[in-house]
Design brief:
Elements: E1 3-7, E2 13-24, H1 30-33, E3 39-40, E4 53-60, E5 62-63, E6 69-70, H2 78-91, E7 98-101, E8 108-111, E9 117-124, E10 160-167, E11 172-179, H3 185-201, H4 228-236, E12 242-244, E13 265-272, H5 274-283, H6 298-320, E14 332-337, H7 339-342, E15 353-358, H8 363-368, H9 371-382, H10 385-388, H11 390-402, E16 409-411, E17 420-424, E18 448-450, E19 462-466, E20 475-482, H12 485-492
Parallel strand pairs: 9-10, 14-17, 17-19
Antiparallel strand pairs: 1-2, 2-9, 3-8, 4-11, 4-18, 5-6, 7-8, 10-11, 12-16, 13-20, 14-15, 19-20
Length: 503
């Protein structure tokens, strides 16, 4: 089996050995056979690029023979975990198939149902003895702790992969990766919580455990679920959040000097304390509120701060480097969960995300405005009718699925070296409900949960907010920026609000 040798943050070599690969499908074959030959995806699934995954690593302490959490023994028994995955697929049978995209319409669907998912056993010769473990302590910053992944071109790769890695100290990691087109972050963590529940259930009296609450995997608003007349009505609708690319022919090549290649993107994991967040929230709130609606959330306050400071650093970098001819517009994007508005319930397993976009700032106006006005702009963008009125969201979904060429759909966000995208995961339960081994035998929540920086996720301006798991109210910030921007942020003091800003 292949092995990867890399270094941890301490500089010591670490070898991750892939020991065995299991191809697993549903325990009950009828679960996926009942779906037919093809499983349609919903309207909001269609908006996600087919090669982007949701990937998260979970690290657990080992179990000692006394039942106390320690580093002597292993956790997450392989045989039991395989059985739990198979039972999980009874509830998520569509994940046993393979993602396909119609080349003419861009419509995504799943076929080859029953083919299965991939579970990899791996070992690592490193002892993770740190009390406060970070992503930088893991082999290749956790990238080696996931099953192999390549951008799907022939769509033959599994939708879901899980790798269990046993460390020399007894600690164990689970690297879980699922194609984003089949799940958003809410559904992803629900899937892992369901896996943990079934794993615990295998230790009870029931030979085949069951979930207390069954997930809803039937997609919302598929092509076949709306009538021809509904599609005709939807086609005439003008959604506030999207438009169709006119598909203009590319301009002729000129003799102009091609632009220099962009610099490498560097990802860092930072932490901001609750006390600093409280201070930011005060600064980001309108000092002279005119109504009860003049408030901002912690997410909006921290996002506004990063939005301003990153833009300030990028402008300073542009002024220092003559090779940087221009910056793209400073647009802001953040996904918004539509489950509650559409009444789909918290255990809907597909994508239910629309995007809040701020595109009315110039670089100059973004910096000239006080922080509270920037925060208010983010606050207001989340609360436009297109994201708050159910009829508009329903009509948007029908408009999306009715398009003859889904590849032409665009939102109003202009990505480039001046934009940022922030996803809020900090409100999700990523720790306490993810106990695999029963507390009676020392099972505890993961000591570390995070998304890695990969070749796909190292995108300039891509940021995640995560909860650290200690109930402190702090926020972990996973932030990817062009490498030259980081030292400018440091020189400006913009990273001073973070506890671990030094590299």
């Amino acid at each position: 089996m292949p092995q990867n040798t890399m270094k941890t943050s301490s500089g010591s070599p670490a070898t991750v050995q892939k020991v065995k690969t299991h191809h697993l499908s549903s325990l009950n074959e009828s679960s996926w056979r009942s779906l037919g030959d093809k499983f349609e995806l919903g309207a909001f699934d269609q908006l996600v690029l087919s090669f982007i995954p949701v990937a998260v690593v979970f690290v657990y302490d080992g179990l000692s023979s006394s039942g106390d959490s320690g580093l002597e023994g292993s956790t997450l028994d392989v045989t039991r975990l395989c059985s739990a995955i198979q039972r999980l697929l009874d509830y998520y049978p569509h994940l046993t198939g393979r993602l396909q995209v119609d080349p003419s319409s861009g419509l995504a669907y799943i076929d080859q149902l029953g083919t299965g998912v991939e579970f990899v056993e791996a070992t690592c010769d490193v002892k993770l003895l740190q009390k406060d473990l970070t992503m930088d302590d893991l082999p290749d910053r956790s990238n080696a702790l996931f099953a192999p992944f390549s951008i799907p071109t022939h769509h033959q790769d599994p939708i879901l992969t899980i790798q269990r890695t046993q460390f020399a100290c007894g600690r164990v990691s689970l690297g879980v990766r699922c194609l984003h087109k089949c799940t958003d972050a809410d559904a992803f963590f629900q899937l892992v919580r369901d896996l943990a529940e079934l794993y615990r259930g295998l230790g009870g009296d029931d030979e085949v455990p069951s979930l207390r609450v069954t997930p809803t995997f039937h997609p919302y608003c598929t092509f076949s679920s709306i009538s021809t007349s509904e599609r005709q009505t939807a086609d005439a609708y003008e959604p506030p959040l999207y438009f169709l690319d006119p598909g203009k022919a590319p301009s002729p090549e000129s003799n102009a000097t091609p632009p220099a290649p962009p610099p490498l993107v560097e990802g860092r994991f930072l932490r901001i304390s609750k006390s600093e967040l409280d201070k930011l929230k005060v600064t980001a709130t309108n000092p002279n509120p005119s109504s009860t609606y003049d408030w901002v959330s912690t997410f909006e306050a921290l996002s506004a701060y990063l939005y301003q400071e990153i833009s300030r650093a990028r402008l300073a970098w542009r002024d220092q480097d003559p090779a940087i001819r221009s910056l793209s517009p400073p647009d802001f994007l953040s996904p918004i969960n539509m489950r509650s508005l559409l009444g789909l319930g918290p255990k809907y397993v597909g994508n239910v995300l629309l995007h809040s976009v701020v595109s009315n700032f110039t670089h100059a106006s973004l910096l000239d405005n006080p922080l509270w006005q920037v925060a208010k702009a983010l606050h207001d963008a989340i609360r436009i009718d297109g994201l708050q009125q159910k009829d508009q969201v329903v009509n948007t979904a029908k408009w999306i699925i009715s398009q003859p060429d889904l590849g032409r759909i665009r939102n109003h966000f202009r990505y480039g070296n001046g934009a940022i995208m922030i996803s809020q995961w900090s409100k999700m339960d990523m720790h306490q409900s993810l106990v695999f081994d029963a507390p009676a035998v020392g099972g505890k929540p993961p000591i570390l949960v995070s998304t890695p920086f990969t070749n796909i996720s190292l995108i300039d301006g891509l940021i995640y907010f995560l909860p650290p798991g200690d109930n402190s109210g702090d926020i972990e910030v996973c932030m990817a920026l062009s490498s030259p921007v980081w030292p400018v942020l440091e020189e400006m003091g913009s990273l001073g609000v973070f506890e671990n800003a030094s590299t």
